[in-house]
């Protein structure tokens, strides 16, 4: 792998899943791999799970890990030829070039503005770093994708599936805030490409994701119909792609025990943080079918697999 | 020790003091102890001494140390059954559960609001982490206690006492801001339990600490009377417990050379940061009887003793 | 070296340049040097390059590295005898004394206010830390100097010079903001002392630097005249020293391809971040004569040389 920005960079999904499970099973035995190497995690937006799991993964492989919060004062310029006499203090050409001097792998998190779809879907920050960095770049969630989350989700499904090709349902769920489509886009993209699962997406009318991520999946606008017979139910809110950034308060879409009763005793998944009793009821989240903490744990091992892959390990 | 939240978690005070002195005397020789283990320090409030000394202690034992400032954006929900459609983005159940996946010891700092005594004295943040974490939890100061400071204070007293059962005086002192009772509560609690010292507390009327911390100590409202014959004078401001959060400007209570002359050539102690010429005069603080830097140094070794104890070391 | 605050602390410039090149050539082979030692980087102002390069240098030598942002809430008192009943929560006496307990080397960044020249040129923050710290202090840029940048610049010149005593031109360049004189002061001071280069300074009338830094250099107010025959052109904006903090919008001073054509095929240097097409044109910055990324890389090795020197290595 040269960079890790989406499922298209994965060697193969089964290969990455196996590597992640390998590192999980051999904790503390892989610190020679990145000995003397440095990982920089650059956050344009705050993060808890992603920061901690990536740091842990870095340490597992023996990296020196440096985490930078760049959200505050560091205004970057992205335009070629810009006359920089306004707010931007540094061009991404220099920023990426300089950071590349100080590390062996550069991991970057950024978020969309959710105002201008064209701008967001160009995924400008991560792509500019890829263009100008001279070391491998890892997405720690970009404007439109969250590939390390998706890989961790694949690992979690691989660990828990009881059939050859389980039915996986990605369902939209309510949320009080306007959220990116990144987690949902990425999950759809990975599930569609992974031939070991069968993906159904359920969302209200007006909340269809971009077809570049969902082509190949069944998309239904009826949550109950979608959930029938599911082996895994993955809940997530996202704001509208078509009416860009629009939200809807639809309490009928909360994932509840009643809805889970329609499934094949499905496991429940969510990337966290989760709004209890809005996205999903306490009953579901606190049940022994909930995999949310397993997913969070697997973030570490997904990151380890990717970091090792980028070093050629 | 399972967790470290108060003196009640200490194996015994002499045991912890001895362990701290052991680590201090064997700097750089204990890095095998926590090799491959991770310490997360989670700060809901800012910190200098506590952060640095705990990080140093972690490194001394071989931990990978991750420090998170959670003060800004990360709003946690603490109520069971809450419908999370307002500000709180994550329930402490998930927060503590997730953090437990990424570390072997979780250290947490939080402060009281000093508005609602009942709420503060429930010590909600640290207790919620203890309830939901699956790894040992260390208090880096909670709403009502600061046990690592108290242990460092015990170590400092043990290093400097010249009699079998020295007279220790905890005295209230003036301060321009409204401060928690945590340091004073904890110091009282440790001194009362530690049978190697004799504790007197001096504070103005209206500033008595909660008896759950002070029962067993002599409480006087006359500072000079209290200081007579003291071997150690520990100054600290705290806001009122009884008239909760109230403060008082009482310059007569500043610890001065004149007052120290009443003592048995006492050592002066303070947890820092200290307001010079408000809490204590320059003359006292700059004298060779001042132990404030020794206390700060011992924070590292107190933390090392506790972290090692939590690993069973 | 006892501390590292200016060129006056350098053993000799050639010695430090050689040490820096030695560490650069032996990456990952020097981690025994500071094994078991701790470096604290304390930032009163934000930083990207300085933070990352100093952390990298610390890791290269085997330090445990702790980075503290002190810009926000930590108000220090610097006056002797102050009655601290206002904003300042801690006196630098305690702050420096405490930090010295937690590390083997203390690195400090601070900026000038650019309002009161006398106060800024006393370089109060870094000097107070030097006065009260009990460990070596390194300047990560102070109000009036940036010695690690200057050392990195020396290394970069040493690597690229093609004549025995190249002509180096430090030229003022436009910038939309009011900037410190620190980089320019320091660069002048190092170049003047370094007998292997010949320094010319070009700046508009009213922008002469303080003579304590420039005495011994040629100072011209005509940029084109200065650049003629140059082997290295170092561009940097600074606000006025004489009309303290004043700025000027002088687009004629932008470094362009036309101006570089007057030189002896000079290398272009800048400490970054750089405002493209304000300080310097894209054409110059993107040419193969631009050394700006080399300078950024050499920051790491300059810091390694200094840190090792402070340990006696």
TrEMBL record, chains A, B, C:
EC number: 2.1.3.11
Binding site for carbamoyl phosphate: 47-50, 74, 109, 146-149, 271-272, 299
UniProt keyword Isomerase present: no
GO biological process, one term: L-arginine biosynthetic process via ornithine
Record has Transport as a keyword: no
MF-aspect GO terms: amino acid binding; ornithine carbamoyltransferase activity
Entry-linked SUPFAM superfamilies: Aspartate/ornithine carbamoyltransferase
Protein name as catalogued: N-succinylornithine carbamoyltransferase
Organism: Neolewinella aquimaris
Lineage: Bacteria, Pseudomonadati, Bacteroidota, Saprospiria, Saprospirales
